[in-house]
Amino acid sequence: MIPSSETRLQAPADWTPPADFRERFPWIGGDLQTLRNTLFNRLGGEHADLSPWPARRVSTAMTDGSGDRLCAELHVGNRADDRPLSILIHGLTGCADSGYMRNSSRALLEDGGAVLRLNLRGAGPLAGDSRFHYHAGRSEDLRDFLGGLMAAEPGLCAGGFHLAGYSLGANMMLKFLAEYGADFPIVAAVSVSAPLDLKATQERMMAPRNRFYHHYLLHRMKAETSAGVLEAAGMTGADLQGLQWIYDYDERIVAAANGFASADDYYRRCSAGPFLERIAIPTLLIHARNDPWIPASIYDAAQAQTNRLVKVVLSPEGGHVGFHGRGGRTAWHDLCLMSFFQRHPERTL
Description:
The chain is α/β, with parallel strands linked by helices. It is built from 13 helices and eight strands. It has two domains: 30-197 and 280-349, Rossmann fold (3-Layer(aba) Sandwich), CATH 3.40.50.1820; 198-270, no CATH class.
């Protein structure tokens, strides 16, 4: 991609994190950084209290004839009318109420913004009513949601959008930016721990050292699988429970229900890495070299891409959507996304 002179003016190459990430005790190492939110819940902790900013639920119908809808929790807060609306997109087996979604929301709301916590298809309150389910490449769902939101609430969307995606949701968001970003008033975007190469991530997840993570995620993926998805995949509940590996789930459920020839075809067509050169919106990618789920080599390759609008920050530490650091309760990736959004307060193209 060869940016124009106008594009060069807003290229984020000169943006730097507000500080280097430094992990805090006792969350030392990539595994504890990754597990912190789950362990925190198990120990009786509570994630961000959003009650000072009451939410209202909004929803939008998908355009594929399925009857499915996406719903979200909207916090207007004390936002000025011309400030971009921040839209947060969760990861695999997550939802709008996931701890990292609430924590990012609190940070943005305290900063004076408005936030929308999006439930992807088949997640959150409408999960039982969804015929189909989100996956790493279902970018058309975000397209439909934003189109419906702009039609229903033009005043809310007048300042455009800041997008933030986490893990699998970040991969889908990056693909969306390349395919549909120019059709919407996207001001800037931040990706946290996106699996840019789905095949490499699947192979890492199946490594012996990740056996615990693998079985935990597979159990949650099975629990999320609706009757409609099973029907589309030609599977029964007994077939589903018999799957032993995430690769098998992607082959027999995700690929079969969504028209991919195989799991490997799904990985190839939906990995966000090859889409980075096509993104025409200031975009920040945050990742930790010690993420136990996603190989750092994927991000070494991403740093070699030539799109000046895409900035890659690869921290030595932080785990997977972790970044629980010193200096306060706000996660380091939230400090970064707020700083990046402040660097890009309005659309200039």
